[in-house]
């Protein structure tokens, strides 16, 4: 009887050790905040997440030996959540700005975003010259139409730029303290809502990243992107982490460098944005 009891205890000890070992070996999660309404960078494909940022994030997680967990929230909430340490990192077509650098740190860049202007077919806006009056140096000094309304996805680069003063390529009148005196920017939770507002004549145009713009135009009749030399802004995309989280930032940068060097990032971008179509 004693031998049987001893054997049972030994088996229990082995099982306990194996369970403990398995628990130790379980992959740590890398929580990524995003706004999955920004194709082709991030969007929902049925119940699954897809897009450039999603695939790059998955490759980073694999290199770090971690399990990627994606949380879909509003764009502003993604930035705030990362800044507060609620999420490990943010990827949502995020550009680096001086204001954002005050509350979070950024990785090396991995893609370039171009802000463009979408208008309805037949719009009186056919170029930047129909929006701004320029001086001899090519800098904006006034608006052609002071009643213009511009739709943007809130907290995005398009929102930041267009909310500035006219002399900084914005569309608003600012007070001396920098506060907004006349706000001509209408902010929506998603790019799709901004496009719907354009189609229903609630705004005169929409400013958004070029690649999502292509997707929205392809999915909606009666709208188009201003062609020619009418790019509104050009920015580089990066990954944000909580300010001071240098350990994670260094790991992300190392993974990004390796993914750039072996052609993985280029292949992912080519998959969603074929160069022959650019």
Summarize the structure.
With 278 residues, the protein is α+β, with helices and mostly antiparallel strands. It is built from nine helices and 18 strands. The strands form five sheets. Strands 8, 11, 14, 15, 16 and 17 form a six-stranded mixed beta sheet that branches.
Question: Would you state the CATH class of the largest domain?
Answer: Alpha Beta
Structural class: alpha+beta
State the end-to-end CA separation.
79 Å
**Annotation field: number of helices:** 9
Number of strands: 18
Q: Order of helices and strands, N to C?
A: HEEEEHEHEHEEEEEHEEEHEHEEEHH
> What is the rounded Rg?
24 Å
Query: What is the general shape?
Result: globular
Residue ranges: pLDDT <50 for 5 or more in a row?
1-25
Mean pLDDT: 88
> In the CATH classification, which architecture of the largest domain applies?
3-Layer(aba) Sandwich
Helix share bin: 25-40%
| CATH topology label of the largest domain | D-Maltodextrin-Binding Protein, domain 2
What composes the largest sheet?
A: 6 strands, mixed
**By CATH's scheme, which homologous superfamily of the largest domain applies?**
Periplasmic binding protein-like II
Overall tally of domains: 2
Explain what this protein looks like in three dimensions.
- With 278 residues, the protein is α+β, with helices and mostly antiparallel strands.
- Strands 8, 11, 14, 15, 16 and 17 form a 6-stranded mixed sheet that branches. Strands 5-1-6-18-7 form a 5-stranded mixed sheet, with helices on both faces.
- The longest helix has 24 residues, at 2-25.
- It is built from 9 helices and 18 strands.
- The model is unreliable at 1-25 (pLDDT under 50).
- It has 2 domains: 27-110 and 238-277, Periplasmic binding protein-like II (D-Maltodextrin-Binding Protein, domain 2), CATH 3.40.190; 114-235, Periplasmic binding protein-like II (D-Maltodextrin-Binding Protein, domain 2).
- The chain is globular.
């Amino acid at each position: 009887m004693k031998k049987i009891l001893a054997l049972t205890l030994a088996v229990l000890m082995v099982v306990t050790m194996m369970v403990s070992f398995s628990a130790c070996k379980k992959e740590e999660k890398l929580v990524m905040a995003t706004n999955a309404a920004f194709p082709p960078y991030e969007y929902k494909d049925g119940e699954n997440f897809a897009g450039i940022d999603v695939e790059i994030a998955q490759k980073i997680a694999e290199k770090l030996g971690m399990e990627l967990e994606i949380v879909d929230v509003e764009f502003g909430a993604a930035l705030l959540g990362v800044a507060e340490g609620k999420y490990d990192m943010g990827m949502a077509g995020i550009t680096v700005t001086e204001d954002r650098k005050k509350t979070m740190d950024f990785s090396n860049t991995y893609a370039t975003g171009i802000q463009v202007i979408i208008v309805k077919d037949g719009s009186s806006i056919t170029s930047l010259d129909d929006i701004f009056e320029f001086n001899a140096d090519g800098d904006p000094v006034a608006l052609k139409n002071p009643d213009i309304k511009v739709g943007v996805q809130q907290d995005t680069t398009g929102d930041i730029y267009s909310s500035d003063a006219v002399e900084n390529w914005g569309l608003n009148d600012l007070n001396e303290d920098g506060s907004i005196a006349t706000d001509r920017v209408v902010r929506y939770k998603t790019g799709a809502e901004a496009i719907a507002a354009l189609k229903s004549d609630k705004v005169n145009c929409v400013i958004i990243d070029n690649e999502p713009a292509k997707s929205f135009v392809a999915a909606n009749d009666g709208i188009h992107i201003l062609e020619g030399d009418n790019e509104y802004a050009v920015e580089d995309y990066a990954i944000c982490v909580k300010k001071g989280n240098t350990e994670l930032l260094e790991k992300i940068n190392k993974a990004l460098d390796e993914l750039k060097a072996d052609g993985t990032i280029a292949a992912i971008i080519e998959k969603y944005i074929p160069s022959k179509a650019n």
